[in-house]
Structures are given as C-alpha cells and as structure tokens.
Write a structure and sequence with these properties.
Distance between the termini of chain A: 37 Å
Largest sheet of chain B: 6 strands, mixed
Number of strands of chain B: 11
Strand content of chain A: over 45%
Structural class of chain A: mainly beta
Structural class of chain B: mainly beta
Radius of gyration of chain A: 13 Å
Distance between the termini of chain B: 41 Å
Radius of gyration of chain B: 13 Å
Number of helices of chain B: 0
Largest interface: A-B, 24 and 22 residues
Strand content of chain B: 35-45%
Order of helices and strands of chain B: EEEEEEEEEEE
Oligomer: heterodimer
Chain lengths: 114, 108
Amino acid sequence: KAGVTQTPRYLIKTRGQQVTLSCSPISGHRSVSWYQQTPGQGLQFLFEYFSETQRNKGNFPGRFSGRQFSNSRSEMNVSTLELGDSALYLCASSLVRADTGELFFGEGSRLTVL
Amino acid sequence: AQRVTQPEKLLSVFKGAPVELKCNYSYSGSPELFWYVQYSRQRLQLLLRHISRESIKGFTADLNKGETSFHLKKPFAQEEDSAMYYCALTGGGNKLTFGTGTQLKVEL
C-alpha cells in the first residue's frame, strides 16, 4: 500500500507570494492533518480535514487555509508568504478521525521563503 | 488547552544503559497519550500508545495521571534507538498535540 505522498518536496518562494501544497493520503484513509515543523517550535497543528470538512483548526493566521477533495486528497495554501513561514510542512493521514492518534506521515514539503 | 512538554532537547546515553525520555502533559479531561519516533531519513511514525499497554522495540510507557506524565523507558539502549522522539496527546475529539521532541543519541 502506498504511503502518504506530498508534493512538491522542496520549493522556494519570495515574500508576498502564495504557495499550494498537496497531500495524497493512504488509500482508504479519510482524515488528513497538516502540521508545520520548525526547529524551535516542533510540530504545530494547522488543521484536520475529515470527509471534506475541516474538523479542527490550529492557531495560525487566516493566511493558512486548506481543503479536502472527495477522493480525500488535500491541499493547503499559504498566501502572502512571510519569512517566518519557512518550515517543513507535514501531512498525515488516518483511517478515521485523527484524534484516534494513529497518524501516518508523509515526508513533508520543505518551504523556503526568501 | 492541551499541552505537551518534553524538557530535554537532547539525551545522550551509552549503549546498554537505561533510557528514560520524559514527557509531561497538561489536559483537563481524560487524555490519550502516544509516542512517535523519527529515525534518520525516515518518516515520523507511531511507536506506541498508552491504551495498548504494549512494549515496542523494548520501549514501554506508563501513564501517570497523578504526575501528568508519560515517560518512555527502555532498560538497555541500543545503537538503533538513536532517533527523535515525540510525545503526543489527544482527548475529547481534539487535535493531536505534539511536544517539541527529544533527540536520543546512543553512544558506543
């Protein structure tokens, strides 16, 4: 069974631009969660989507948004990029709701904002 | 609000020595606790969960509600245990919250 796939793996943007990251969950998994990982803050929860509905949201500004499609694939978007948005963005899928605790992570999308 | 604290950024032990990775949490309800591990150049993956009361790769963790702790222990460290370990908490249908992680380095 293929694991969680995230694209692109690496990208470089400049301040003020926007970016869209994609996540394909494990087949059959209905929940997708997004996390921002930085050396100082660790893993910070962005949001969770379950059956195309945002189920939980973290404490990030409105510039961070996401969505989930009917095939459970998910995208997250960051608009008006800031230097501080440079991070590894991790996607994780789970069979049912993410609060069951068993998440399967992708390799991440590393975003550098210049 | 739920919070997970891992006080040590780096823990260095010798091979064969006991290991204890500390995790404390703050949560008003009934928590569910987990340990995740990330080996070098691998994905973050679930190691164990407290409700399973299982031993994985020789690691165990006991939930102590009185001390609000969920420390990860192993009696004899192995070189392959070197990795980044994250404690995580959820409860009441909330998000899964991670600690900042502890890098375990097992020296020969």
